[in-house]
User: Which sequence fits this backbone?
């Protein structure tokens, strides 16, 4: 598919063009960026799920998709699983739990390897979310395994982050990873059909009461207290309560002004990242082509003066990479 | 112009189609492909040809791998190839394995299945075949 063909098919609502565009943003290929420019009012809302493997995230996502489809909303799911650090390969198996939505044209499911993304998972995911919004999806659900940095990456992208726990946590709630309390907007205690779920809820409640209230915007009514929602995802129980909590959190973000703040901060961070990418490319080019610069660099033995020289040059004309259209 | 020309792993969607619970082989193959650096999307049991192709399109997979032990390979493999035609996605390669007699293999290859692997095939043979098909990764 050429870039023009891709753009035409994307705008015509062709799923394959959307899928190909997402592959391109996974590589941070800039050629599809104009497709991300959504018509007004068509940005998707994003909720992220994270938690240990086997806690039931995919099953929860599946249940939530069912609820949202009953409300006639279109839903896109991005499910990430870790890649092997040794080979880069991966088995992406989250779709298995979402099979009842197969062939529903208003449901799009995409599996992503969580590693090996240029610039990190959150950058690729943000681009993918904009594509999904521009394509016309109302809601985007992210699923990520709570290992490594991936849950932090998801929290940096989602409007609402849901942390999933279960009764059969090996070492109890005390052992949940540092940083989780800070990123959770909602806790789900899934598998509430299993013994011990009440203890998890109580331990969690105790832990939350000890932690400092979440920083919140000046003038906002009150800080957000992450609710704890018991669910039996496998039986579609607690899903309406979960969705009500997501919507309450969204209203809170709007009312407190944090929605805007967050959007602004994220867009600024992302802009800085894109500037760095553009600059890096130009710097490599300058260093590759300019023998004089290389000679001075080698003479200095440190990178700083050459770097300043390049930045000064960039200031005179930083050009974005040409688009092939 | 891409910012980076890093090769993307080849994405392979593997599935069991039809009423067939023999999933040991497909899981072994999936693991071998992961260990060889491929991104494997496993969609599980009891898939229809339509589901398989639809998922492959959403996942932007370059390859579909089917595993069939039920005896229905002469209908299911061609049905997936046909569905790819209908969805104008004939660039996606179909291959697979399972219980498939010699004669049927020849017939299926004539009907658009790229390759078939039967019980006892060393996993390395499957990986080698893919390497030959995709020498430059999934870009
Ligand atoms: C284990 C087994 C079972 C287990 C399955 C467990 C499981 N979860 O997988 C159980 C006991 C449940 C079972 C049940 C049945 N089985 Co059974 N089973 C076998 C057996 C003995 C071994 C299969 C196996 O796991 N092999 C090991 C794996 C690693 O090998 P593989 O699957 O062949 O995979 C290799 C290749 O085929 C290929 N490959 C396979 N898939 C894919 C996919 C891709 C993408 C690629 C590239 C390659 C590839 O690569 C692999 C590596 O070499 C075979 C006999 C045999 N020797 O094959 C019978 C066999 C498959 N079963 C058979 C039958 C009839 C049944 C039953 C109908 C029996 C009954 N009457 O109840 C039921 C049906 C169950 C169901 N729901 O489908 C028949 C099928 C006959 C046919 N199709 O003509 C066989 C051939 C036995 C026979 N000789 O009659 N079975
Ligand atoms: N008992 C029980 N099992 C569940 C529930 N939700 C999911 N499971 C099971 O937990 C296992 C892991 O589920 P999955 O959604 O794949 O978890 P993930 O790894 O977090 O995505 C599966 O066997 C599910 O059937 C639940 O509410 N109760
Ligand atoms: Mg999962």
Assistant:
């Amino acid at each position: 598919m050429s870039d023009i063909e891709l753009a035409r098919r994307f705008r015509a609502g062709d799923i394959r063009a959307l899928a190909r565009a997402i592959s391109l943003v996974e590589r941070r290929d800039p050629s599809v960026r104009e497709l991300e420019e959504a018509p007004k009012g068509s940005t998707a809302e994003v909720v992220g799920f994270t938690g240990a493997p086997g806690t039931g995230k995919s099953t929860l996502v599946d249940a939530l998709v069912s609820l949202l489809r009953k409300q006639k909303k279109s839903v896109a799911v991005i499910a990430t699983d870790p890649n092997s650090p040794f080979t880069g390969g991966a088995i992406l198996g989250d779709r298995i739990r979402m099979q009842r939505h197969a062939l529903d044209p208003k449901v799009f499911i995409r599996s992503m390897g969580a590693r090996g993304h240029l610039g990190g998972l959150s950058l690729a995911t943000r681009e993918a979310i904009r594509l999904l919004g521009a394509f016309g999806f109302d809601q985007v659900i992210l699923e990520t395994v709570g290992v490594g940095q991936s849950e932090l990456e998801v929290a940096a992208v989602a409007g609402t982050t849901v942390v999933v726990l279960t009764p059969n946590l090996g070492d109890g709630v005390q052992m949940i990873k540092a940083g989780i309390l800070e990123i959770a907007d909602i806790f789900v205690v899934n598998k509430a059909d299993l013994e011990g779920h009440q203890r998890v809820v109580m331990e969690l409640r105790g832990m939350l009461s000890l932690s400092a209230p979440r920083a919140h915007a000046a003038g906002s009514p009150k800080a957000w207290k992450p609710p704890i929602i018991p669910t039996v995802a496998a039986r579609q129980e607690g899903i309406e309560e979960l969705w009500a909590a997501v919507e309450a959190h969204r209203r809170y973000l709007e009312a407190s002004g944090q929605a805007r703040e967050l959007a602004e901060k994220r867009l600024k961070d992302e802009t800085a990242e894109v500037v760095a990418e553009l600059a890096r490319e130009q710097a490599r080019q300058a260093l590759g082509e300019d023998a004089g610069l290389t000679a001075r660099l080698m003479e200095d033995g440190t990178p700083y003066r050459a770097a300043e020289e390049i930045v000064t040059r960039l200031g005179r004309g930083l050009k974005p990479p040409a688009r092939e259209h | 112009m891409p910012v980076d020309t890093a090769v993307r792993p080849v994405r392979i969607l593997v599935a069991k189609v039809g009423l067939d619970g023999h999933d040991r082989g497909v899981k072994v193959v999936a693991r071998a492909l992961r260990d060889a650096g491929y991104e494997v999307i496993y969609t599980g049991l009891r898939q229809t040809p339509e589901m398989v192709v639809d998922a492959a399109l959403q996942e932007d997979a370059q390859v579909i791998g089917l595993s069939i032990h039920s005896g229905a390979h002469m209908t299911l493999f061609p049905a997936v190839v046909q569905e790819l035609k209908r969805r104008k996605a004939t660039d996606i390669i179909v291959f697979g394995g399972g219980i498939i007699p010699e004669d049927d293999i020849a017939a299926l290859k004539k009907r658009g299945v790229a390759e078939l692997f039967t019980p006892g095939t060393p996993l390395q043979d499957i990986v080698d075949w893919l390497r030959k098909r995709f020498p430059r990764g999934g870009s």
Summary: Residues 1 and 139 of chain B are 14 Å apart (CA to CA). Chain B is about 40% helix and 20% strand. The two ends of chain B are 14 Å apart (CA to CA). The longest strand of chain B covers residues 11-16.
